[in-house]
Write a structure and sequence with these properties.
By secondary structure, the protein is α/β, with parallel strands linked by helices. The chain folds into three domains: 51 residues, lambda repressor-like DNA-binding domains (434 Repressor (Amino-terminal Domain)); 129 residues, Response regulator (Rossmann fold, 3-Layer(aba) Sandwich); 135 residues, Rossmann fold, CATH 3.40.50.2300. Helices cover 45% and strands 19% of the residues. It has 13 helices and twelve strands. The strands form two sheets. The protein has a six-stranded parallel beta sheet, with helices on both faces. α5 packs across α13. The mean pLDDT is 88. This is LacI family transcriptional regulator. Pfam families: LacI (PF00356), Peripla_BP_3 (PF13377). InterPro entries: Cro/C1-type_HTH (IPR001387), HTH_LacI (IPR000843), LacI/GalR-like_sensor (IPR046335), Lambda_DNA-bd_dom_sf (IPR010982), Peripla_BP_I (IPR028082).
C-alpha cells in the first residue's frame, strides 16, 4: 500500500465511512472503541501521515459556518442568508453558502463535505431534514423555516406558520368571503403543512365544510409560466356567485391569482379577496398591493445566529424550537 495513504483509502480498508475515519484520526465525535482500534491499526500498518496543510485548515474550522439553502434566487431565502452571513461575520465567523437547487442528494453531499473538513456548525434551510438526521452529525445545527423532529444537536427557528394560516383564514371570513386555499406541488415541508393546518382548523371551528384546498400542479418558482390551471379554478369559484376569499400559500401564488383575476375583470376585493404569505417585494409591486402575512426575516436570522453562537461558545446544545411572531399586513386585495 502507498505510504501517502488518504483517509478515503483507510475508510475503504476498514469498511467504515470517511467521516468516521476523520473523527477517529482527529479524536473527536462519536465512534465505538472497536472502530477506533481498527482504523488506527490500518493507519499505522500503512504508514499513514496526515497532510499538515489539511490539518491546519481543520484546526481553523471553528471560524467557518455552513449555510445550506435550497434556492438562493428565492427572495425570502436570499434575505435570510444575507442577514445570517452579515451577522456571522460581525461575531468572527465566515459563512460558506451552498445552494442545493432543492436537490436532497446534493444537499446531503454538501453537508457531508463541509462537516468532514471545515465547519464548526450549520444553518440549514433544508429540502429534506430526514436525510440530514440520517447523517448522524455531531456538529450543532440550526434549521431555519423548517421544524423537523429534532435530534440532540438541533434547533429550529421559524415563523408561526400555523397561526399565520389561522389569521389569514379568519380575516377572509370576517370580510364575508367564502374561504379557499391555493397551494403548490412541493416536497412536504413543516411550514406548508402548518399553514394548511391553520386554515383547516378555522374551517372546522366555523362549521365550513367541503374540499376547499386547490393544489396547483406547479412550484412557486414556476407559477407564472402557465396560468391556465389558476384560470380554470377561478372560473369554477366565480360561478358560485358569492364573494370568494383565497388564502395563497405564498405571495408568488397570490400574485399569480391576482394577475388572472384582473385579466378576467374580476373585482378585487369586492368579488374576490386574496391573502398571501411572506411579505416579499412582489406583494408590494403587483398590479394591486397584496394583503399578506408578514414573516420577520431579520428576527429569524438573528435568532438563528444567536442560537448557533451560544452552542459554539458553551459547547453544549439543548434542542429547542424558536417560533417567530407573524403579522397581518392589510393592503388592497382583502
Amino acid at each position: 500500500m502507498k505510504n501517502n495513504l488518504s483517509i478515503r483509502d483507510i475508510a475503504k480498508l476498514s469498511g467504515v465511512s470517511v467521516s468516521t475515519v476523520s473523527r477517529v484520526l482527529n479524536n473527536n465525535g462519536r465512534y465505538s472503541e472497536a472502530t477506533k482500534e481498527k482504523v488506527l491499526k490500518i493507519a499505522k500498518e500503512n504508514g499513514y501521515r496526515p497532510n499538515s496543510l489539511a490539518r491546519n485548515l481543520r484546526k481553523q474550522a471553528s471560524t467557518f459556518i455552513g449555510i445550506i439553502v435550497p434556492d438562493i434566487s428565492n427572495e425570502f431565502f436570499a434575505k435570510i442568508v444575507k442577514d445570517c452571513e452579515q451577522l456571522l461575520f460581525s461575531i468572527g465567523y465566515l459563512a460558506i453558502v451552498c445552494n442545493t437547487e432543492r436537490n436532497p442528494e446534493l444537499e446531503k453531499r454538501y453537508i457531508e463535505k463541509l462537516s468532514n473538513h471545515m465547519v464548526a456548525g450549520f444553518i440549514i434551510i433544508s429540502t429534506n431534514a430526514t436525510t440530514i438526521r440520517n447523517l448522524n452529525l455531531t456538529l450543532p445545527i440550526v434549521y431555519i423555516d423548517r421544524t423537523p423532529n429534532l435530534g440532540e444537536n438541533s434547533i429550529s427557528v421559524s415563523s408561526d406558520n400555523y397561526l399565520g394560516g389561522k389569521i389569514a383564514t379568519k380575516y377572509l371570513i370576517r370580510s364575508n368571503a367564502d374561504p379557499y386555499m391555493f397551494i403548490t406541488k412541493t416536497i412536504k415541508q413543516s411550514t406548508t403543512e402548518d399553514r394548511i393546518s391553520g386554515f383547516k382548523d378555522v374551517l372546522i371551528k366555523e362549521n365550513i365544510e367541503g374540499n376547499r384546498i386547490f393544489s396547483l400542479n406547479t412550484t412557486s418558482d414556476c407559477v407564472f409560466s402557465d396560468l391556465r390551471e389558476i384560470r380554470k379554478y377561478l372560473d369554477t369559484l366565480i360561478e358560485k356567485r358569492k364573494k370568494i376569499g383565497i388564502f395563497a400559500i405564498n405571495d408568488k401564488v397570490a400574485a399569480a391569482i391576482l394577475k388572472v383575476a384582473i385579466s378576467k375583470k374580476i373585482k378585487i376585493p369586492e368579488e374576490l379577496s386574496i391573502v398571501g404569505f411572506d411579505d416579499i417585494s412582489i406583494s408590494k409591486t403587483a398590479a394591486m398591493p397584496i394583503t399578506t402575512i408578514s414573516q420577520n426575516t431579520s428576527s429569524i436570522s438573528s435568532q438563528a445566529v444567536n442560537a448557533l453562537f451560544e452552542c459554539l461558545n458553551k459547547n453544549i446544545q439543548i434542542s429547542r424550537k424558536i417560533v417567530i411572531p407573524i403579522e397581518l399586513i392589510k393592503r388592497a386585495t382583502a
